[in-house]
Design goal:
The protein has 346 residues and is α+β, with helices and mostly antiparallel strands. It contains 10 helices and 15 strands. 1,6-di-O-phosphono-beta-D-fructofuranose binds next to strand 5.
């Protein structure tokens, strides 16, 4: 036995590390779902493929003509970036190829995307996505991401999905996650049984389990908000920001202000270290800037699964019944005690 373990150590030293890939992990977890059919596994597998293909472009963005504007204005009234369109296309292709997805809602498309072929219409899942999050950071090499949310359809299989399939409250999500294209590329997701992180190993082209059962510290020392909009924040938010800057904290220090300007990256940092992210209503965005269906709902599901909280200042984000595809809501998300403290001021 000692000899075998020694051999294993030698092999590990020579060939690297004992990995568990995303696909292996999902297949293993199928056991958690008594009625699992492999459909969800196939869908998530294709999400991983699309993430790798987008990552290839992001990693060498300056060299492959994906920087800059695409020359269109999207449904949000924003200039679309070339990478917004590329990421959108890449994920839509992968979802179609999966044959498990009957329809997609995307930040970059006004209407829901459906397909006429029978196989797609037989798909059991609805996919909502922000194909490229943090667009203002694309051209300046600051980390960006993709955010996604998955539901089971409510319309009958074998038909085209309806708007009702996409306007389900966040508490109906069967899975949510994001990809962060940063110093390393990670895919972080939940199926309602904890939050798991996988880091892309380019040498084997696989997302490998690197963060098991992520739990957010109930208290943190980081607050993330675009203070440039300070004058237009609700009074309660202004008071909470002042509270963040005071020394009378367990750490005897003010909280640190950290704001990357990519929701995925700001959330990911706070998820691991503890902290609070806030995007309140502002003058230019009286209902908040971030979109309920493909930004706030998936982030809220992940936050809650990691022990955190996500609200719009009054309600639990996941209990909000969406009224339209690109609806915006205020969001306050992060460490439990910090969001509760904020609510004392609101
Ligand atoms: O520049 P602002 O107003 O602070 O907004 C930053 C926020 O806008 C976003 O970039 C919006 O997302 P998109 O880039 O996907 O449109 C978030 O990632 C980020 O949190
Ligand atoms: Mg976004
Ligand atoms: Mg986007």
């Amino acid at each position: 036995m000692a000899n075998f373990t020694h051999k294993l150590e030698l092999i590990t030293i020579m060939h690297g590390y004992n990995v568990k890939t995303l696909t292996q992990f999902i297949i293993e977890r199928q056991a958690d779902f008594p009625y699992a059919t492999g459909e969800f596994t196939r869908l998530l597998y294709h999400v991983g493929v699309a993430a790798k293909l987008v990552n290839k472009k992001v990693n060498k963005a300056g060299l492959v003509d994906v920087l800059g504007e695409a020359g269109n204005i999207n449904v949000q009234g924003e200039e679309q970036k070339k990478l917004d369109l590329l990421a959108n296309w890449q994920f839509v292709q992968a979802l179609k190829n999966s044959r498990e997805c009957c329809g997609v809602a995307s930040e970059e498309d006004q209407e829901i995307i459906t397909w006429d072929d029978e196989l797609s219409q037989d798909g059991n899942y609805i996919f909502c996505m922000d194909p490229l999050d943090g667009s203002s950071n694309i051209d300046v090499n600051v980390s960006i991401g993709t955010i996604f949310s998955i539901y089971r359809r409510i319309s009958p299989r074998g038909t085209k999905p309806t708007m009702e399939d996409f306007l389900q409250p966040g508490n109906k999500q069967v899975a949510a996650g994001y990809v962060i294209y940063g110093s390393s590329t990670m895919l972080v997701y939940t199926t309602g049984r904890g939050v798991y992180g996988f880091t892309l190993d380019p040498s084997i082209g696989e997302f490998c389990l690197s963060h098991l059962n992520i739990v957010t510290p109930p208290d943190g020392a980081i607050y993330s908000i675009n203070e440039g909009n300070y004058n237009h924040f609700p009074e309660g938010v202004k008071k909470y920001i002042e509270y963040c800057k005071q020394e009378d904290k367990p750490t005897k220090r003010p909280y640190s202000a950290r704001y990357i300007g990519s929701l995925v990256s700001d959330f990911h940092r706070n998820l691991l270290k503890g902290g609070i992210f806030m995007y309140p209503p502002t003058a230019s965005a009286p209902k908040g800037k971030l979109r309920l269906i493909y930004e706030c709902n998936p982030i809220a599901f992940l936050a809650e699964q990691a022990g955190g909280i996500a609200t719009d200042g009054k309600n639990r984000i996941l209990d909000i019944k969406p009224e339209s595809l690109h609806q915006r809501v205020p969001i306050y998300v992060g460490s439990k005690n910090m969001v509760q403290k904020l609510h004392e001021f609101l």
